[in-house]
Design a protein that fits this description.
By secondary structure, the protein is of the alpha/beta class. The protein is 28% helix and 27% strand.
């Protein structure tokens, strides 16, 4: 349908009031939205992580069931519980210290940690990749200041014309229009033949954040039929 949109958000960070405001705004679109994506970082240190997960798991009548992928905070939680490759969670300790790590550890129980393990790394839909950071890592922050060659690399890795991401928490739209673009794979046998990449414009969209800024939440509407992006802000 021409008027059917995807609603895409990220960065709830435990802020239930902000998430409720975004849900209300989405519902107010009068069935114009066909799909709802949460691109990670629904956990955080700002609120009640158990309540956020329970709300995500139990949509109310008339609400869309969200499709959810892991973010940086969820990866750190899995690290803390020994379910990822860095059980000491050095990235988390560097960011929030040992007290913050302890708070995250205590914020959800083992049953909910097991639920985290079932979530996706990202979603590839049509010519779009919806992911928290990029295919490189959860922590990969793409912004308007990211060098163009790096943005090209992320788009090539994603094999997508549109990359929706949430790690930076910023709302932005950035077009990459390469005039000449080649990629090369290096294997154990040495460099392989250069491959020409498509020169059509490709786009990276930062979907903003729901819960990081008190009193204000951001999300994105995307129409796959018309390839248009709308940035939305709700106040609560």
């Amino acid at each position: 349908m021409v008027n059917s949109y995807w609603a895409i958000c990220s960065g709830i960070e435990g802020n239930l009031a902000a998430y409720e405001a975004v849900l209300a705004a989405i519902k107010h679109q009068n069935n114009a939205i066909s799909d709802f994506y949460i691109l990670g970082d629904f956990l955080g240190l700002q609120g009640n992580n158990r309540a956020i997960i329970e709300r995500i798991q139990s949509p109310k009548v008339g609400e869309l069931t969200p499709q959810i992928c892991l973010g940086w905070w969820e990866e750190q939680c899995l690290n803390l519980h020994g379910l990822r490759g860095s059980p000491d969670a050095p990235e988390l300790i560097a960011k929030v210290g040992t007290d913050g790590a302890k708070l995250l550890w205590e914020s959800i129980d083992w049953e909910l940690v097991q639920w985290l393990r079932t979530l996706h790394f990202g979603f590839h839909e049509l010519d779009c990749l919806l992911i928290h950071g990029s295919t490189v890592s959860y922590a990969d922050e793409l912004t308007l200041d990211t060098p163009a060659i790096q943005l090209c690399d992320r788009l090539i890795r994603a094999d997508a014309n549109n990359l929706f991401c949430g790690r930076s928490g910023l709302a932005f739209e950035c077009w990459v229009e390469p005039k000449q673009l080649q990629s090369q794979i290096i294997t154990l046998d040495g460099p392989q033949t250069f491959q020409e990449q498509g020169k059509s414009p490709r786009r990276i969209v930062g979907v903003g954040n729901v819960g990081r800024t008190k009193g204000q939440g951001n999300y994105v509407l995307y129409n796959p039929a018309t390839d248009t992006v709308k940035f939305k802000t709700v106040c609560y």
